[in-house]
Amino acid sequence: MKGIIYHGQHDFRVEEVADPAIQHPHDAIVRVEETAICGSDLHLWHGESLPVDGFAMGHEFGGIVEDVGSAVAHFRKGDRVVVSCTAGCGHCSFCSRKLYGGCTTLAPAGPYTNVFGNPLLPGGQAEGVRVPWADINLFRVPESLGLEQALFVTDILPTGTMGAELAEVGFGDVVVVFGCGPVGTFAQRASQIRGAAAVVAVDLHEGRLARAKERGCIPVNPSREDLKERVLELTHGEGADAAVEAVGVPALVRDAIDVVRHGGRVSVVGVIPADEVPLPIMSGVMAKNMTLRAGLVTPQNHVQSLLPLIEQGRLDPTEIITHRMPLCDGVKGYEVFAAREEDVLKVVLTP
Ligand SMILES: [Zn+2]
Ligand SMILES: [Zn+2]
Q1: Ligand 1: centre distance to CA 100 (Å)
Q2: CATH topology of domain 160-294
Q3: Assuming Cys at both sites, which of 204, 227, 241, 273 could form a disulfide with 222, CB separation 3.0 to 4.6 Å?
C-alpha cells in the first residue's frame, strides 16, 4: 500500500510499504478513505530527525473496516468508522479509569507511543492501518453523516472541546481562546455551545480572525490592540472567567493566566513541545486562586457526545477544511501547511 512515510526532518515521502495485517485477535484493519494533516504532525516535520524511520505518519483518519481479529466484538467488515488518535487497550489500570492516553499496554515505551503515526503504531496517512483493540478505538460513523463530517472527532474536535471543559466554561462566562487554528476554532465553538456570554478569539492572522468573527466571536489581534485592556472592558474591570491556550506557545500560557480574573480557570490544550515553561506562580496563579489545567486528548471520552451535535447541525467540523488533495500529493500538503501558505487551516487527504 501507499503511505506518507517518515524519513526525517522535512523528509516525508509517498511510497509503498507492506500492507497492514491482523497481528492480535483484538485488531482491525481499516481501509482509509479520508485522513488529515494535524498541527502536531508538524512537530515531526520540523523536529530533529528520529533514529527510526520508515513508518506512516498521521493520526486523524477514518474509512471502512476491511478485516477484524477473532476477538473483536462490535465491528465487522464493511463498517464505516473513524479512529481515536490515541489508542487504549480498555483494561489496564489507566484505561479502566478512561485515561486512555496513559495506557500501559500500548505505551510501555513512554508517552505518545500510543498515538498513531510512530514506529510502534504506524499512522493513517496511508491506504490502510492496523488498529489495535478495535472495540475501544473505533467509532461507527452514524448513517446520517458523511465520513468527512465525523473525521475530526479523531483528535482536534475533542481537543478543542476538552479545552472548554478543562476551563469549566459555563453559562454567562467571558472566555478568551488563544488561537484560531483548528483546535482554537473548536474550543470557541464548544465555549459557545456551553453557554459563554462572549468568546474573545485571539490570533495574529487576519484571515483567521475574520473567520472567528463570522462564528460570533470577538476577534482580537494582540499586535494591533491591547488584549488585556479589551478583556477588562468586557468584564467591568475584572478579567475573563476562563481562558484556553489552543496554540502550543509557552508565552501564551502566561498571557492566559494574565487575562483571567481572580478565581479564573485556564486550560492548555495546544501541544507545547517543551518540558519547561516559566510561569508566574505567585503573582499569577497563587495570588489569583486560579485553576490551571492541561492535557492531551482522549477522544474515546468525547465521541459519543460530539456525534449528536454534528448530526443535529449544532457543529459543522468541516468548516475548517481549506484544502483537499489526493494522498499522493500529501508531501505538498505538508509543505503548504508548514509554510502557512494559501490561508491554510486544514488539509484533508484522500487515498
Ligand atoms: Zn491531530
Ligand atoms: Zn490500557
Answers
A1: 16
A2: Rossmann fold (3.40.50)
A3: 227
